[in-house]
TrEMBL record:
This is D-3-phosphoglycerate dehydrogenase. It comes from Pigmentiphaga litoralis. Its EC number is 1.1.1.95. InterPro entries: D-2-hydroxyacid_DH, D-isomer_2_OHA_DH_cat_dom, D-isomer_DH_CS, D-isomer_DH_NAD-bd, NAD(P)-bd_dom_sf. Gene3D superfamilies: NAD(P)-binding Rossmann-like Domain. Residues 121-297 form the D-isomer specific 2-hydroxyacid dehydrogenase NAD-binding domain. It holds the Pfam family 2-Hacid_dh_C.
Length: 351
């Protein structure tokens, strides 16, 4: 495909690290077009229907539903060859529908794993040591004792990781530096792989029952939705902490609030919600032993730079014939190659 008929990459005007556009603009065969998220759907559809690659946000509540990569959108975008998520997850993408349409789906998994792991440890410390609670009191109240906000060390505690992929493995390494005992449950991995990533493999029931801190690092899918419900929280160790930097919907927020109110659980650190952001009157936001953040675990300057750079490099390499390293639906790769070659030939004929 020559420079006059470039590969067309579309994205919406949601924030992405500038390195994404900068790297793609260095490629004469690739053109990037930015569509408006609000206010001009006709223009947005015009951009999307001519795109070969749709660079899509992974944050489902940031993007209007009709611009999610679902069947209806795919039917309107016949030139689309690839949907590329700007994150490790792809909640805005119907992978099955893309697979049926012959559209490749890629993510940037691992790009912000270090950021997520640091945030996970930060939430553990903030909840266990009551850092946020102490900060709030010091700004508004006088006459309280230091002992009234006394917390607990995380060193020596047992950490249970539900999922030990990129972020989970980095979390395990950081936890061990604090002297924590780490175990993990991950149905997608062998016991030997779990051990190689720094944790002792256990089943979910054992992990929930024996962990001092349970931290979620699993994807959101049909197998994990509402995985932590009232019964699961009740089976957790009394006084345990619950942490999630995974996805909203994996845990039942109202059941968690109940477990915290009764004192069965000592605290929670929550970076993810369903929906995001949660309403201001959400019961979890009224509890002093909850530290709440706005899905920012992977949103560090370094993390956002990494995923944007990875996304650009993956797109560039794919159109040079290099197999993408982070394919969500690998069975579509051969179809992607065939459709790309056909598009290249058609462009050469009409050039």
């Amino acid at each position: 495909m020559n420079s006059s008929t470039p590969w067309r990459v579309a994205r919406f005007d949601l924030w992405i690290n500038p390195v994404f556009d900068e790297r793609l603009k260095q490629e004469p065969s690739i053109a990037v077009t930015v569509a408006p998220t609000q206010g001009n759907d006709d223009h947005a559809w015009d951009v999307l229907t001519h795109a070969h690659v749709y660079q899509i946000t992974a944050a489902k509540d940031e993007l209007p539903l009709h611009f999610h990569a679902h069947r209806a959108l795919l039917e309107r975008c016949p030139d689309l060859l690839c949907v590329s998520s700007t994150g490790a997850g792809y909640d805005t993408v119907d992978v099955d529908a893309c697979t049926r349409a012959g559209v490749l789906v890629v993510s940037q998994i691992g790009g912000n794993a270090a950021a997520v792991a640091e945030m996970t440890i930060g939430l553990m410390l903030a909840v266990s040591r009551r850092i946020v609670e102490s900060d709030r009191k010091l700004r508004t109240v006088r006459g309280f004792s230091r002992e009234s906000v006394m917390g607990r060390d995380i060193g020596g505690k047992t950490l249970g990781l539900v999922g030990i992929g990129h972020a989970g493995a980095k979390t395990a390494a950081l936890a061990k530096a604090f002297g924590m005992q780490v175990m993990a449950c991950d149905p997608l991995l062998t016991d030997d792989t779990v051990r190689s990533r720094g944790a002792e493999p256990v089943d979910l029931d054992t992990l929930v029952r024996t962990s001092d801190i349970v931290s979620l690092h699993c994807p959101r899918d049909e197998s994990t939705l509402n995985l932590f419900d009232a019964a699961r929280f009740a089976s957790m160790k009394p006084g345990a902490l619950f942490i999630s930097t995974a996805r909203g919907g994996i845990h039942d927020e109202h059941a968690l609030a109940g477990a915290l109110r009764t004192g069965h659980l000592a605290g929670a650190g929550l970076d993810v919600w369903d929906p995001e952001p949660p309403p201001l009157d959400h019961p979890l936001l009224s509890l002093d032993n909850v530290v709440a953040t706005f899905h920012t675990a992977g949103v560090s300057h370094e993390g956002r730079h990494n995923v944007a750079a990875m996304a650009a490099s993956q797109i560039i390499d794919m159109f040079k014939g290099v197999r993408a390293p982070r394919i969500v639906n690998p069975e579509v790769w051969d179809t992607f190659v065939q459709r790309s070659e056909r598009a290249r030939r058609d462009a050469s004929v009409t050039a």
